[in-house]
Design brief:
Elements lengths: L1 E5 L3 H12 L3 E5 L3 H9 L3 E2 L3 H6 L6 E4 L5 H13 L5 E4 L5 H12 L4 E8 L4 H4 L2 E5 L2 H6 L1 H7 L7 E5 L3 H29 L7 H8 L8 H10 L17 H11 L5 H13 L5 H14 L8
Parallel strand pairs: 1-2, 1-4, 2-3, 4-5, 5-6, 7-8
Antiparallel strand pairs: 6-7
Helix pairs in contact: 9-12, 9-13, 10-11
């Protein structure tokens, strides 16, 4: 099966490589010509514009969009809506807000163009391990694209599936990432407790390796903990500033809207916000209050 791929960053580029290895024809486009040229060397068909990409695809066309969520996705899908024809399909594999995906599906549907939202997980390891894909869209159209999903997945019958109508794929991926926030925070806190217990002189990497086999807390994330600690268990080269890309926030907001408690995910998100404050006023006020009511000592700025 052939398709167009827009966005050739780490994930988009590796997805293209996996598709090429699976025998698919992939027409690629990215604003950076060097990214296109690299994949052309590896067997892809290059294009210098969205219009050229569409021209090089046989009808009914399928274009996979793998660009940052938000305005970039919006403008890309909008441009494609003017270039594609009725019966064509746009697949959005980015981490977009599911409500925006529903809106894009409705907008494209008015022109006879189909839409599939694919929540994609796998990161830089997807090229070799395969991608987990949560898919939203019309059943028949999803089935038509089965060869693509089977190639990208860890196995043809594992790691992917249609979870519902348009928006469902990105909704499930949103919750997936919210859970990921909580798991990561739990590992981070546990390892910090062990690091603070200096009397035992624990090797944190050794603990991660032990837990990776047979333990009820074993996971791929734990394997990544081991890799991260391999060269420097103090992580002295890393600043403790943790970003978030939006999915955790959306998950928390959704839990509020649905009256579903999500204290772990919410607190893990708040902890990320806290990591970005190098001189936190709240901590200063807490120290001042303890001094005011209990005479507890405070540390002053030298």
């Amino acid at each position: 099966m052939e398709l167009g791929m827009i966005g050739l960053g780490k994930m988009g580029g590796n997805m293209t490589r996996r598709l090429l290895a699976g025998g698919h024809k992939v027409v690629v486009y990215a604003p950076t010509p060097a990214h296109v040229a690299k994949l052309v060397e590896e067997g892809a068909v290059g294009s210098a514009s969205l219009a050229e990409l569409v021209e090089k695809l046989a009808s009914p066309r399928t274009v996979w969009v793998m660009v940052p969520s938000g305005n970039v996705t919006e403008k890309t899908v909008e441009a494609l809506s003017e270039l594609l024809s009725a019966g064509d399909t746009v697949i959005d594999g980015g981490n977009c807000n599911y409500r925006e995906s529903q809106g894009r599906a409705d907008s494209l549907r008015s022109k006879g163009i189909k839409f599939i939202d694919v929540g994609t997980s796998g990161g830089v390891w997807g090229l070799t391990e395969g991608y987990s894909m949560m898919i939203g869209g019309d059943t028949e159209n999803v089935e038509r694209h089965r060869p693509i999903f089977e190639t990208l997945a860890p196995a043809p019958d594992k790691g992917w599936g249609r979870v519902g109508e348009n928006g469902a794929g990105h909704f499930v991926k949103m919750v997936h990432n919210g859970i990921e926030y909580g798991l990561m925070e739990a590992y981070a806190e546990g390892f910090e407790i062990m690091k603070a217990k200096e009397e035992f002189g624990l090797s944190l990497k050794q603990v991660a390796d032990i837990w990776s086999y047979g333990s009820v807390v074993r996971s791929w994330l734990l394997e990544l903990v081991s890799r991260a600690l391999a060269d420097d268990e103090d992580l002295s080269h890393i600043k403790g500033w943790v970003d978030d890309t939006g999915e955790g926030r959306w998950t928390v907001l959704e839990s509020i809207g649905l009256d579903v408690p999500a204290p772990v995910i919410t607190l893990s998100l708040q902890t990320r916000f806290r990591s970005r404050e190098s001189d936190c006023f709240a901590d200063k006020l807490l120290a001042a209050l303890r001094n005011q009511f209990g005479g507890h000592s405070i540390k002053t700025v030298e």
